[in-house]
Amino acid sequence: MQVTVGKEGAVTVVKPLGPITAGELESLEARLTELSRHWTQRLVLNLGEVTCVDSAGLELLVRFHRQFEQRGLKLKLCGMNDLVEKVFTLTRLSGRFDICPDTAAAVRSFL
Predict the structure, then answer these.
(1) 3-class DSSP assignment, residue 78
(2) Residue 93's Cα: distance from chain center in Å?
(3) CATH code given to domain 2-108
(4) Which residues have C-beta within 8 Å of that of residue 23, sequence separation ≥ 6?
(5) What is the DSSP string of 56-77?
(6) Per-residue model confidence as pLDDT tens digits over 63-91
(7) Which one of 20, 30, 66, 111 has the fewest beta carbons within 10 angstroms of its own beta carbon?
(8) Domain segments of the chain as ranges
(9) What is the pLDDT of residue 100?
């Protein structure tokens, strides 16, 4: 999986490309670990190019969400396609995460 990282003002935007599944987690996990170690204050995970998420991918996202919360950092999700959004709804994780429609809305929500 390819993972891009950029900045929009004081917000770090991470954009994984492809599935967030058991066989594809290494690069995303490495990037999120690196960002959490550097105390990135505001992080948006743009899921616009994510084709699907399995249980291992959900577990990874929940783990990092918890780690960020415990450190007083903020992690928001955005740009989900219908399939990914349905997975979050069916697993009842949509209520646990702050989910925005797109990157611009997620960045604005930090203000």
Answers:
(1) strand
(2) 12
(3) 3.30.750.24
(4) none
(5) HHHHHHHHHHHHHHHTT-EEEE
(6) 999 999 998 889 999 999 999 999 999 99
(7) 111
(8) 2-108
(9) 97
Is the predicted pLDDT of residue 111 greater than 90, yes or no?
Answer: no
Q: pLDDT of 14-54, one tens digit each?
A: 999 999 999 999 999 999 999 888 877 899 999 999 999 99
Sign of CA dihedral 97, 103, 109, 110: positive
Tokens coding 92: 């009842």
Structure confidence at residue 73 (pLDDT): 87
Least Cα distance to 63 among 102, 111, 96, 14 occurs for 96
Do residues 46 and 14 touch, judged by C-beta distance below 8 A? yes
Q: Residue 79 has which token pair? A: 């740009």
In sequence order, what are the residues at sequence separation of 6 or more whose Cβ sits closer than 8 angstroms to the Cβ of residue 32?
14, 60, 64
Q: Is 31 in contact with 64 (CB distance < 8 Å)?
A: no
Residue 95 burial (CB < 10 Å; 0-12/13-18/19+)? Answer: exposed
Letter for the amino acid at 56? A
